[in-house]
Amino acid sequence: MGFLEVENITKKFGRQTALDDINVSIERGELVCILGPSGCGKTTLIRIIAGLETADGGRIYMDGRDCTELPASKRNLGIVFQSYALFPNMTVHGNIMFGLRQKKELPRDEANAKALEVLRLVDLLEHKDKYPRQLSGGQQQRTALARAIALSPDYLLLDEPLSALDAKVRVKLRGEIRKIQRALSVTTVMVTHDQEEALTMADRIIVMNNAVVEQIGTPREIYNHPATPFVANFIGMMNFYEREGEVCAIRPENIALADRRDVYDASAKIQSLEFKGPLTRIHGILPGAEEIFVDISSEAVDNLSLRENSMIFLRMPEDNVMKYSEGSLI
Ligand SMILES: Nc1ncnc2c1ncn2[C@@H]1O[C@H](COP(=O)(O)OP(=O)(O)OP(=O)(O)O)[C@@H](O)[C@H]1O
Ligand SMILES: [Mg+2]
User: Fold this and answer.
1) Best mutation site among 20, 22, 42, 162 for ligand 1 pocket (most ligand atoms within 8 Å of CB)
2) Which of 12, 13, 212 to mutate to test the pocket of ligand 1 (most atoms within 8 A of CB)?
3) pTM (2 d.p.)
4) Domains of the chain and CATH, by start
5) What is the tens place of the pLDDT at every residue in 152-191?
6) Residue 247 in contact with residue 232, Cβ under 8 Å?
7) Residue 306 DSSP label
């Protein structure tokens, strides 16, 4: 049994099914991302794990113990949600002290030592006497994180903790959260709808769609062997085409250019070239008018003098082609 077990969880809001028989097993110390489009049930699932929402059916086990009926306050969790909900009338230091004094009932000097320790960990020592309104979004979110980990929780639950931040801060905080999570080896479940965030941070990713789990796997498994066309399409860029009644899929970077005199699988006319630094993404049009995306090195684009309206000849190596039948990977 995993350190956190989600077993047959279902949840409806009126006639709307938010979760349909969800099963997940998470190991101690893992960081697992729940990834999926808006409305697929991510927040509902993490709220049920937190004990902030009750499921209609199913069980939640924490460290082998059935916690399904246990209130959130008894679950030993650190929670950080998108809206930071810091106490506006308390300093950074005060915000962290509050939980330590109230929840853990630590004596003042012990709480103070702990607060300073976590503030150092999230690199906020120099801002400890500021009020939330005097902090940047990233600093506020780090304060919320510090407040959550100060309580030495068994589980850290994060619901889109970075989504309110600008791109640069988000990337920086990703790395910091991951580092802190590793250092504390705290079992962490993080909701995101940002695939790059999930791919870079997670030990494993739970991909959800329409209230169900589509796939659970490591970032590499999910990227290289997407279990369903939905996952293939949702994560990274994917070309789909039909061959002999099967749905085939290949990633833009796995298509090779061939010479027109060689053997090739398809030809395409270049509609546009999207320079992305070392790589260029070719938007091509197949003879049947379908779009195809091919990523090749920008150097090769220059060497071959490729431009709009050039013809290209494509090879799709069998090993790189994924085939789906009736919605599942063959
Ligand atoms: N309190 C509620 N009352 C009624 N319907 C709800 C409630 N909470 C969620 N839902 C519905 O349940 C479904 C799942 O919602 P949820 O908030 O879990 O999605 P999400 O994956 O977190 O989406 P987002 O990425 O937009 O945050 C949605 O269709 C939503 O409208
Ligand atoms: Mg949500």
Assistant:
1) 42
2) 13
3) 0.91
4) 4-230 (3.40.50.300), 237-329 (2.40.50.100)
5) 999 999 999 888 788 888 898 899 899 999 999 999 999 9
6) no
7) -
